[in-house]
Amino acid sequence: MKEGRLSLRDYFRDILTSARISCRRGVLSGLMTVWGVFIFIVVVGTSNGIDRGNRSNYDYLLDYILISVSPGETSMAHNGLVKGQMIPLTRSDAQELQMLFSDRSEFIYPRKQNIVQCKSLTSSIQLLVSDYRKELNDNALKIVAGRNFTQVELNGRNRICIIPETIAAQLFGSTDDAVNSILEVNSMPYIVLGVYKPVHQININQVFVPFETAMAMQGIEDEVSSIDIKLILETPVKQKYQLKEDMRSWLYFKKGISPYDASALHFEESIDFIEAQEKLLDSIRLFTVVLGLLSLIMGILGVSSIVYLSVKERTKEIAVRLVCGSGKGSILRLILGESVFFMLVFGCIGMALGSIVLNIANIIVEKFTADEKWIFIGDMTVSWQLILSCTVAIIVCGLIAGLVPARKATSVRINQAMGCE
Amino acid sequence: MIDLKGVYKTYWGDTPLLALNNVNLHIDEGEFVGVTGPSGSGKSTLLNVIGLLDSYDEGEYRFRGQLIKELNKEEEAIIRNHNVGFVFQRYNLISFKNVYENVELPLIYRGVPQQEREERVLNMLEKMELVGWEKHIPSHLSGGQQQRVAIARAMVMNPKIILADEPTGALDSRMTQEIVNLFRKCNEESNITIVIVTHETSISSQMNRCITMNDGRIEKDERR
Known about the structure:
With 421 residues, chain A is α+β, with helices and mostly antiparallel strands. Chain A has helices at residues 8-25, 27-62, 91-101, 132-137, 151-155, 165-172, 175-178, 211-217, 237-255, 270-313, 315-323, 328-369, 384-410, 414-417, and strands spanning 67-73, 86-87, 105-116, 125-130, 142-146, 160-164, 182-185, 188-197, 206-210, 226-231, 265-269. In chain A, strands 1, 2, 3, 4, 9, 10 and 11 form a seven-stranded mixed β-sheet that branches. Chain B has helices spanning 43-50, 73-83, 99-110, 114-127, 143-155, 173-190, 201-204, and strands spanning 2-11, 17-27, 32-36, 58-63, 66-67, 84-88, 161-165, 193-197, 209-214, 217-223. By secondary structure, chain B is an alpha/beta fold. Chain B starts with a strand and ends with a strand. In chain B, strand 4 and strand 5 (66-67) form a beta hairpin. Chain B has seven helices and ten strands. The A-B interface holds A 1-7, 10, 17-18, 21, 316-317, 319-330, 414-415, 418-421 and B 39-40, 44-45, 47-48, 53-54, 73-74, 77-78, 80-82, 86, 88-90, 92-97, 105-106, 108-111, 153, 157, 165.
């Protein structure tokens, strides 16, 4: 051991002794630290909850449709079109887009949504008509029982459908029992080919039917409700907008719409919605970071004031240590050690209290938002990783808190502190 | 052992105070020295400079041949720890440590193993007639006992020199004599150099050498 330094055992013994003495006078300042860390944990937990809650509302969109084109009305006369004329979209539009832009998109498919009545079900169901094979294969909606459509079936006008777990449970008791059973839609019997797991609230009443079948059985025409385009996930934003513009130009040209008409066709982008949500969440995160830092600063000030007071009152003791052969480095380590000790003790109390409060809040929130379709706040519990990072942050804060008092301690003038002339 | 040549020290306040003015002093090993003089004459400053608790502005100071100006603060701390024991008027014991822990402190900083520490501390407490008081904190002790703890703390390192600044200033005459006897015993039995700053002529008259200071200068240096 280097001379002028305490052994590890003596170092910890001294820290504990000094901490015991300082603790008596530092309880109030310590509470400030507890409060600071408590607020930090609660704020971080709440922010996580808001993040998780909001994400769960649109997470499915990340693997899903990114651009959706739907029919609109012209806002100006152009090329034989009159103002206020409906511009329909058809399956052939989708097929042509598919041919033209297949290299820049993952898939393009027409989609039609019909609200229909289903025998044995009190509420109406949404009949989704599209080239659903691809959509169902895309992991966005997983088949949990039975199977997907085959390409032959999609073109064969068979009366087949794929239903969500929710409807399977209501009508047939279980997913396995639902497979190969008959579902009556608008008085037409359909064989249930498969059961899928809804990933979001909007899926729970969506029944999938092939387009050809729907056209034959339900009198649905060639017109579609929308053409959905899924982009390749890694598509940069600039290319995404370029693709959108290219598609728009092509559709406008084909249908003779004025390039200045903004409402003839509607282009909706789920990615815009996601980006807007992400920006909102980023703002919340930034707010959390600022609030968290302020809380930690409060904690630092609390501990710093305890240690500073302690150093001020122990000037003579520090001088005695120096006289007894302590190096200034040893004094510095002793004061920093005390500071880290205080920060850890009070910080851990703050963390524990914060975690308890978040767990209670979680139970309450879960109870009151169980039936909500749009989840504003989700799981608020803080992870072990965060607790670990917080502990490291607390140790660093302890060092910061002890820095000023420690410097003061090492600048003690021995002869003055000892009461010499 | 102690060699000061033309040492100057000024305290730079609103009105600069020349605390040491061309001090030349040589102290040999095993001497029993008293330093007297009126208040503000520079006695304590001299003691602080000798004990490496304070710096000097000009001149040359050699401690056991080592030129002090060449040392950094950490090296000074090591020299202090190895060679110098301090005793102060106000005892300067650590209030929350008990008698045993106070005496043990310099040994801890020197890195002495625990078992050896225990032996040396108990041995020293026995010499200072403090057996049975090990677990008591300083406030439970009388002034004389506290000063004996301070002397034990200074002695436990087997220093070459003990510097005592008004060690009997807070004690009654019986205790004063007891402490002076203790210093003499340390000097005679262990050949430790003792330098005591005191106002009291009854004490300085018992020393083998008496240095009188005035206005930062050594006015008289008498050997008996």
